[in-house]
Design goal:
The complex is a heterotrimer of chains A (about 260), B (about 325) and C (about 290).
Chain A: E1 11-22, E2 25-36, E3 40-44, H1 51-58, E4 66-71, E5 74-75, H2 81-87, E6 89-91, H3 104-114, H4 123-136, H5 152-165, E7 170-174, H6 182-197, E8 201-205, H7 209-215, E9 218-223, E10 226-231, H8 233-238, H9 240-252
Chain B: H1 2-27, H2 29-32, H3 35-61, H4 69-86, H5 90-112, H6 117-137, H7 139-142, E1 148-149, H8 157-184, H9 186-196, H10 198-202, H11 208-234, E2 236-237, H12 239-242, H13 245-258, H14 265-283, H15 288-302, H16 307-329
Antiparallel strand pairs in B: 1-2
Helix pairs in contact in B: 3-8, 3-11, 3-13, 3-14, 4-5, 4-6, 4-11, 5-11, 8-9, 8-11, 9-11, 13-14, 14-15
Chain C: H1 2-29, H2 36-54, H3 62-84, H4 89-111, E1 126-129, E2 132-135, H5 136-158, H6 160-170, H7 172-177, H8 182-207, H9 214-229, H10 234-254, H11 257-274
Antiparallel strand pairs in C: 1-2
Helix pairs in contact in C: 1-5, 1-8, 1-9, 1-10, 2-3, 2-4, 2-8, 2-9, 3-8, 5-6, 5-8, 6-8, 9-10, 9-11, 10-11
The chains are: A alpha/beta (about 260), B mainly alpha (about 325), C mainly alpha (about 290).
């Protein structure tokens, strides 16, 4: 079973009682979770369940109200986003944040320039690394284009490339497949699998059910800020609470899959 | 391959030629031109330096430091006070002016740089006025509202002209050189990224707080140096001369006019605007500021992206025309 | 002591009127209107010339200066400002700075830098209440300023146009969907701002000596008050105006008149950093991060 932790798979990120309030309202409440090195963890839940808030907490954009986050054996509570990025946690944004006024290559070079092992990497070297990463995500041919020339699928890939250039140990993907057509989703799933195969641990938020079921080793389900289920995709799909809270409604409306 | 090599050689040769012409053009004026024109060009160089300095904040970091002229005033008064009260050598005082102005920005930076966009700009205007008032009120040190006389340059008129010409030229080159270095460094990339999106930059490992403070410190330090040189050149200081918000906004407009975020754009903008206003100044002494106002309005209305964007558009059009066939089947 | 408070209150009324128009334009259009200084100055000069040439009482010329500046404001907004409003606050700030340079220097060329003042027959008279001197003119100006602020506030809350302006301030896009013509509302708002500045200018001409740069010092106060009281907030402008009037009045007595400006600006920067939503108002558009 996937959730029985083999000895060679220690947890890379552990959340203990992770809580975040927004003016008295808990967006995320007492969530315990573990992400094991090398796995793909899916994070699902209806809109407003606290998925993105959880990602913002992990990447340091929001401070924890309570609880702790331990990355690679060390608490990252209270660290700044850049410190966390340099420890090896990279992320993408649901609403892509390309650096306008910079070429794709320069966008991606940012990652290599400031990465954990990037101490002293000059801009010129970083630009070379960026070229390789862009090739990998299939944007090699648009290297010198500016971000406003890209369509949505390309922007998502750029977002991914930028995060990859950080050479992360843990990659947080916030709806990288939203707004893409079926073919693009499949190609991106392939890409995520291949990134994972290179040893990068991944947490992924996705509304495209087929995608999240297809790439996740395990899934955590959030509902109103609380964890209501956890397990393999099959287990989660059969969980009563999940079906009523989330899948039932979505599937009932025929929007899933 | 050999074709592209020879073209890159040709390009390099062309650049070297341009650089040579520029260098000659930069050195010759004080030897051949009249005192009036040397003074005019010295002031062009000064504005070139100021526009480059503000560009580091405006063009790279994306922070509209409208009140950056405060550091000009701090630099000017540092030189004045050190030379008048403590008999310090000019160059030592000048160095102190740069350092002090930079430190002032670094000190204010952590708090004030939390403000974004125009609110930062307004806060800097407030800082300029507050600093000006403080300098005015410390009159035992600064001479207050009565002003202060800075020691004259010890030398003949011709020699003095040369001195200030090359001093300002040096400072402008320092400002442009610093900008060029920044544009190619991690600092420059980090600043451009945080200009586009601070959150996005921070999760890419950019220490946005530190980068902003560094950018402001450098920008203020350069501005302070120019202010220090100006104090010695002008030899009489009053707070309204050097904490002049009109001058501050003028340098801002110069940077925008030339092209914020480019290396040489601000210098082009400064030369154009200052030459224009100098020519107008000569013709209609009284209407000088009025015409400056009209120029400001016209720039905002018609070239809000600056000269460099016009060049870039032109270049893009040419390139598209040249590579049109390649892209058509691609 | 009471005298200090009374002085502070009386000046505070004018400050509030100066700030209301400035705050309105900022709140509704997201424009920091540097030209406000020139509109104050022009209002003051209109009253001055009407008094000087035709013997009009400065209080009677207030409607004239308001009407004139309303027209000028409408023109400036519809001809230039509306075209660049989409470039954002910094660009419009620079633009209105340019407009201000033009108007101020035109005034300088036309009317020179001489200090001028209006001295109606009742200028020096004042009322003594228990040892406290209340100059009639200042008191009348104070009351009139309050009346104008209240009238303006009623206009915003009771009239259709006023409601449209408020709706635009809250959400221009939604206002547009309900059929409000944004560019016209902007021009109108800007014109009203200019007219209020002109009214303040006319009153200032009775109290202070004027010259082409007379508006600048009031503009900086409008800045401080708007930041203090909160953007676009009328009660905030009133409170901010009176607070600033009192603060300056006390600063003049305690640390000397020279420091009162430094105090204002120190306050401005401090409030921006610590409490950018002002004392009463909502958050600024840009916010902090």
């Amino acid at each position: 079973m996937a959730e029985q932790r083999p000895a060679e798979r220690p947890p890379l990120l552990v959340g203990r009682g992770v809580t975040r309030y927004f003016g008295g309202v808990a967006a995320v409440q007492d969530v315990d979770f573990e992400v094991r090195a090398g796995e793909v963890l899916g994070l699902i839940g209806p809109n407003g369940a606290g998925k993105t808030t959880l990602m913002n907490l992990i990447s340091g954009l929001l401070p924890l109200s309570r609880g702790d986050l331990i990355f690679n054996g060390r608490s990252i509570k209270g660290l700044s986003p850049w410190d966390i990025a340099r420890l090896g946690i990279a992320r993408t944004f649901q609403i892509v944040k390309p650096f306008t006024g910079m070429t794709l290559r320069e966008n991606v070079a940012m990652g290599a320039m400031f990465a954990r092992d990037g101490k002293g990497v000059s801009a010129r070297e970083a630009l070379e690394v960026a070229g390789e990463v862009l090739e990998m995500v299939g944007l090699g041919h648009r290297m010198n284009a500016y971000t406003d020339e890209l369509n949505i699928a390309m922007r998502k890939r750029l977002e991914l490339a930028r995060a990859l250039a950080l050479n992360p140990r843990l990659l947080l993907l916030d709806e990288v497949m939203a707004g893409l057509n079926l073919r693009e989703v499949e190609r991106l799933m392939e890409l995520v699998r291949s990134i994972n195969a290179r040893g990068v641990t991944i947490i992924v938020i996705e509304h495209v059910m087929k995608a999240i079921m297809g790439i996740s080793d395990r899934i955590v389900v959030l509902h109103y800020g609380k964890k209501i289920a956890e397990g393999t995709p099959q287990q989660v799909a059969q969980d009563e609470r999940v079906i009523t809270a989330y899948l039932g409604r979505r599937f009932g409306q025929g929007k899933g899959a | 391959m050999s074709a592209s090599q020879s073209s890159s050689f040709a390009r390099r040769a062309a650049w070297a030629f341009v650089a040579l012409v520029l260098a000659v053009a930069a050195v010759l004026p004080p030897f051949y031109l009249s005192g009036y024109w040397v003074r005019v060009i010295t002031s062009l160089l000064m504005y070139g330096a100021l526009a480059s300095a503000i560009n580091i904040m405006v063009g790279f970091a994306g922070y509209p430091a409208l009140g950056n002229i405060a550091f000009f005033g701090v630099g000017a008064y540092t030189v004045a006070v050190l030379m008048v009260k403590y008999n310090v050598d000019f160059f030592v005082a000048l160095l102190a002016a740069g350092v002090l102005a930079g430190l002032y920005a670094a000190l204010l930076g952590r708090a004030v740089l939390r403000l974004r966009g125009a609110y930062f700009g307004i806060a800097t205007i407030g800082i300029n006025h507050a600093t000006s008032e403080i300098v005015t009120n410390l009159d035992s040190l600064t001479g207050g509202g009565r002003g202060t006389i800075v020691p004259f340059y010890p030398g003949g008129i011709q020699e003095e002209r040369m001195f200030f010409y090359f001093l300002m030229l040096g400072l402008m080159l320092l400002a442009v050189g610093t900008t060029w270095l920044i544009s190619r460094s991690r600092l420059g990339y980090g600043l451009r990224a945080l200009k586009a999106d601070q959150e996005g930059a921070s999760v890419m490992g950019v220490n946005t707080t530190r980068f902003k403070v560094i950018a402001w410190t450098v920008s203020a330090g350069l501005t302070g140096l120019v202010g220090g040189a100006y104090a010695y050149w002008l030899s009489f200081l009053e707070p309204p001369y050097v904490f002049d918000i009109t001058m501050g906004v003028k340098t801002y407009i110069m940077a925008i006019l030339g092209g914020a975020g480019t290396v040489v754009g601000p210098v082009l903008g400064a030369f154009t605007l200052e030459l224009l206003s100098e020519l107008i100044w000569g013709r209609f002494l009284e209407a000088h500021m009025l015409v400056l106002g009209i120029v400001v309005v016209l720039v905002v209305l018609f070239i809000p992206q600056g000269f460099m964007s016009l060049f870039a558009q032109l270049a893009a059009t040419l390139k598209r025309r040249r590579t049109g066939e390649v892209r058509a089947d691609g | 002591m009471t005298q200090i408070v009374v002085n502070g209150l009386l000046t505070g009324g004018v400050y509030a009127l100066v700030a209301v128009g400035f705050s309105l334009v900022w709140g509704v259009m997201n424009v920091v209107n540097i030209a406000h200084a020139s509109y104050i100055m022009l209002g003051a000069y209109i009253s001055y010339w009407l008094f000087h040439l035709y013997g009009w009482d400065p209080f009677l010329s207030i409607p004239v200066s308001m009407a004139a500046l309303f027209v000028l404001g409408y023109l400036v907004a519809s001809v230039v400002l509306n075209r660049v409003i989409r470039y954002g606050l910094v660009m419009t700030l620079v633009l209105t700075f340019g407009v201000d340079l033009i108007l101020q220097n035109a005034a300088l060329i036309l009317w020179s830098a001489d200090y001028r003042s209006i001295t109606p027959s009742y200028a020096g008279a004042s009322l003594a209440v228990g040892g406290v001197m209340i100059p009639y003119v200042r008191f009348a100006v104070f009351l009139l300023a309050l009346v104008l602020v209240v009238l303006f506030s009623l206009f915003l809350s009771k009239t259709r146009t006023g409601n449209a302006i408020q709706a635009t301030a809250l959400n221009p896009f939604a206002a547009q969907l309900t059929g409000v013509r944004i560019d016209r509302i902007y021009a109108l708002t800007y014109a009203i701002g200019a007219a209020l500045a002109a009214a303040a200018g006319s009153m200032i001409s009775v109290i202070y000596t004027i010259q082409p740069q007379v508006g600048n010092v009031f503009l900086t106060r409008a800045f401080v008050i708007t930041v203090l009281g909160g953007l676009g907030s009328i009660p905030g402008a009133l409170l901010g105006g009176v607070l600033l009037g009192l603060a300056e009045s006390f600063a003049t007595v305690t640390v000397g008149i020279g420091w009162s400006q430094a105090v204002s600006f120190g306050l401005l920067v401090l409030i921006l950093v610590v409490r950018p939503q002002g004392l009463l108002g909502r958050r600024f558009f840009g916010g902090v991060g």
